[in-house]
């Protein structure tokens, strides 16, 4: 039987890409562990900065270091790593449509009684014509976060937030609420 060359190429290309891509569970496990590393690095930097210079100084650290630490965590891996939020401080962290839908789902799961640390989601989506694995992991609000994301910030903290982030919306949170999520993606 003679198979047209093009059809054969298409046939070979399909199972090949499918078998080369790791299983979704394996990808999710990679993403989960990167998000875990990022949590530890971010918290370490944040708490050290708070202790050393107080929240106003720590705000500067967050602004400069948070994206840098995310980039460093992703370095040498095929992943892109960022944070997003329910209401964001930095407009660059605003969720896209997929992320916004997942955040909404996370809110429902949290109010349905799920532990925040167990809330995650992943999906293979088409992005710019390419199959992309996307993963999100919920970030809860704990009491140390309220210094900068709570309902009544100290005047010096509020002033510095306004100066650095004129469009800030990431205040008014209470402990136990969903603050945002780590968001990771990699092309397949
Ligand atoms: C010292 C003040 C400070 C504290 C304390 C703080 N944050 Fe933030 N947070 C910031 C700043 C500043 C940004 C914006 C960073 C940027 O420019 O990317 C931010 C951004 C974020 C974002 C990304 C979405 C957004 O709003 O832009 C998340 C998620 C977040 N913080 C979670 C937390 C959590 C969880 C805690 C507690 C463990 C916490 N933060 C404690 C200052 C703080």
What does this protein structure show overall?
The chain is built from five helices and four strands. With 188 residues, the protein is an alpha+beta fold. It has a single domain, classed as Beta-Lactamase (2-Layer Sandwich), CATH 3.30.450. The protein has a four-stranded antiparallel β-sheet with strand order 1-4-3-2. The longest helix has 51 residues, at 24-74. The two termini are 33 Å apart. The structure holds heme C (HEC). Heme C binds at residues 46, 55, 58-59, 62-63, 66-67, 83-85, 88-90, 93, 139, 141-142, 144-145, 147-149, 170, 179-180.
Q: What is the CATH architecture assignment?
A: 2-Layer Sandwich
Helix/strand order: HHEHEEHHE
- What is the number of helices? 5
- Structural class, by secondary structure, is alpha+beta
| Cα-atom radius of gyration | 20 Å
Which band does the percent of strand residues land in?
Answer: 15-25%
CATH class: Alpha Beta
- Quote the distance from N terminus to C terminus: 33 Å
General shape: globular
Number of DSSP E strands = 4
Stretches with pLDDT under 50, minimum 5 residues: 7-16
- The CATH topology label is Beta-Lactamase
As for the number of domains, it is 1
What helical percentage do the residues reach? 40-55%
Which sequence of strands runs across the widest sheet? Answer: 1-4-3-2
Mean pLDDT: 90
Main sheet specs: 4 strands, antiparallel
């Amino acid at each position: 039987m003679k198979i047209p060359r093009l059809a054969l190429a298409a046939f070979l290309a399909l199972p090949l890409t499918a078998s080369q891509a790791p299983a979704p569970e394996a990808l999710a496990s990679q993403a989960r562990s990167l998000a875990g590393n990022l949590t530890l690095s971010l918290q370490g930097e944040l708490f050290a900065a708070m202790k050393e210079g107080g929240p106003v100084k720590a705000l500067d650290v967050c602004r400069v270091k948070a994206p840098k630490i995310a980039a460093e965590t992703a370095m040498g891996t095929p992943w892109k790593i960022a944070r997003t939020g329910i209401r964001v401080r930095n407009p660059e962290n605003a969720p896209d449509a997929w992320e916004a839908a997942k955040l909404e789902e996370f809110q429902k799961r949290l109010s349905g009684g799920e532990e925040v640390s167990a809330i995650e989601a992943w999906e293979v989506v088409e992005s710019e014509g390419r199959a992309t694995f996307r993963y999100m992991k919920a970030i809860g609000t704990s009491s140390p976060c309220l210094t900068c994301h709570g309902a009544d910030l100290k005047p010096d903290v509020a002033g510095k937030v306004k100066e650095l982030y004129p469009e800030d919306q990431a205040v008014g949170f209470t402990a136990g609420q969903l603050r945002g999520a780590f968001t990771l993606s990699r092309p397949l």
